[in-house]
Amino acid sequence: QVQVVESGGGLVQPGGSLRLSCAASGFDFVSYAMNWYRQAPGKERELIAEGTSDSGSTNYADSVKGRFTMSRDNGKNTVYLQMNSLNPEDTAVYYCVAKEYGTSRRIWGQGTQVTVSS
Question: For residue 41, is pLDDT > 70?
């Protein structure tokens, strides 16, 4: 079954950290760039971390730059999003998306809720 499954969301206090995981299965993981999106209530979906195909680097949205770090483990078919210095504005559903290099194919996860609140 072709899928990506997020985990690791939850409730965290302001200033805290969380690490999200995204496990991929059913497709050739190394042929896909991995991205993280989020959608807060009443707001549009936002691309926050975009993996690139050429250098392997990651582009971050200004809203998370310096606080969030995406990494991937090709041996485990898993991508991670380390989130530090969380604030209430980071409250959202976080989605992992696999984007096939050179095509328009996307594989979306079901999302995981992150709530930052005291």
Answer: yes
